[in-house]
């Protein structure tokens, strides 16, 4: 059997000020996976990524990338890993082509090979037409794609992205989703830290939730979501809603505007009964869609902290 793409064993990190950021974290990511790491601010996500990428020294424990221990064979491990940080950190006065070629040089890649690789990655990122312009003239989405192209210059087997879509609009975010899906489909293992639950649910097959420096849950996305015994739906209504909605035992109906109802109900209940009650009240349902906040609900239940707003439950939040 091949080694895990990432294997973290009893990892601990205590900073000089006494803050224990990681408390015996263990985690395994399979080759080829698209994996989400979720958690609130201060949960330990950035520290964990920092240790894995060798930017932060661990206090105890081990990290292996495809079986290579980063503490014992740092250079070999780093050649297997690409990192896309949240902050845009390239020289805005260099061209995308030069940024990629210079980055490859840091890893000892011969210039002739780097020139070929830069063209390949810029074309893959749909940036070849901007290869020779100043990077500061690129749009926000182009800059984000350039960050991914730079990380892919060394053909990493594991790509880690630390909240890559933070602060960008919906159009840019969805464009990046397409890029990341293509990178993963080509065989690269991807680990994504994000505050956007819609993003994790759309892209990732497996996930881990970290809170207060500990992994509190991990496993397949579908398995974790199946633990929820409540389902949420959005109902679009023909015409205008009446002033009072039907009262149904164990079911929550709430008007979000004059033409939309938010519905929450136990998974064991039948939607036909809800539709019948709405129809009897003169409310005609035109369409229905699933709410996108299931992961937020799961997180709140797992942490048991209903006063916390841990993760953003939609692309625009």
TrEMBL record:
<dbReference type="InterPro" id="IPR003593">
    <property type="entry name" value="AAA+_ATPase"/>
</dbReference>
<dbReference type="Pfam" id="PF00005">
    <property type="entry name" value="ABC_tran"/>
</dbReference>
<keyword id="KW-0547">Nucleotide-binding</keyword>
<keyword id="KW-0813">Transport</keyword>
<protein>
    <submittedName>
        <fullName>ABC transporter</fullName>
    </submittedName>
</protein>
<feature type="domain" description="ABC transporter">
    <location>
        <begin position="6"/>
        <end position="237"/>
    </location>
</feature>
<dbReference type="InterPro" id="IPR027417">
    <property type="entry name" value="P-loop_NTPase"/>
</dbReference>
<dbReference type="InterPro" id="IPR017871">
    <property type="entry name" value="ABC_transporter-like_CS"/>
</dbReference>
<keyword id="KW-0067">ATP-binding</keyword>
<dbReference type="GO" id="GO:0005524">
    <property type="term" value="F:ATP binding"/>
</dbReference>
<dbReference type="InterPro" id="IPR050763">
    <property type="entry name" value="ABC_transporter_ATP-binding"/>
</dbReference>
<dbReference type="GO" id="GO:0016887">
    <property type="term" value="F:ATP hydrolysis activity"/>
</dbReference>
<dbReference type="InterPro" id="IPR003439">
    <property type="entry name" value="ABC_transporter-like_ATP-bd"/>
</dbReference>
């Amino acid at each position: 059997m091949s080694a895990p793409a990432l294997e973290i064993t009893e990892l601990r990190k205590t900073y000089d000020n006494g803050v224990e950021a990681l408390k015996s974290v263990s985690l395994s990511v399979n080759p080829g996976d698209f994996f989400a790491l979720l958690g609130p601010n201060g949960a330990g996500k950035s520290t964990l990524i920092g240790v894995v990428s060798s930017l932060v020294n661990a206090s105890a424990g081990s990290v292996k990338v495809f079986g290579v221990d980063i503490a014992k064979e740092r250079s070999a491990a780093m050649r297997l890993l690409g990192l896309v940080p949240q902050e845009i950190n390239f020289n805005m006065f260099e061209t995308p082509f030069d940024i990629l070629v210079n980055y490859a040089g840091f890893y000892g890649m011969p210039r002739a090979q780097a020139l070929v690789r830069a063209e390949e990655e810029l074309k893959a990122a749909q940036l070849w037409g901007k290869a020779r312009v100043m990077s500061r003239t690129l749009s926000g989405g182009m800059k984000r794609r350039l960050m991914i192209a730079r990380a892919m210059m060394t053909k990493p087997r594991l790509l880690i992205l630390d909240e890559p879509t933070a602060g960008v609009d919906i159009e840019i975010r969805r464009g990046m989703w397409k890029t990341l899906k293509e990178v993963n489909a080509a065989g690269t293992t991807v680990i994504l830290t994000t505050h956007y639950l819609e993003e994790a649910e759309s892209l990732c097959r497996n996930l881990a939730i970290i809170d207060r420096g500990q992994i509190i849950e991990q496993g397949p996305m579908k398995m974790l979501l199946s633990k929820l015994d409540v389902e949420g739906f959005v109902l679009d209504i023909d015409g205008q809603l009446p002033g009072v909605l039907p009262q149904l035992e164990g079911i929550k109906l709430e008007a979000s505007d004059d033409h939309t109802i938010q519905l929450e109900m136990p998974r064991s209940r039948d939607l036909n009964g809800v539709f019948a009650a709405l129809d009897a009240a003169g409310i005609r349902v035109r369409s229905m869609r699933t709410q996108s906040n299931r992961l937020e609900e799961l997180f709140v239940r797992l942490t048991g902290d209903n006063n916390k707003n841990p993760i953003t439950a939609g692309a625009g939040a």
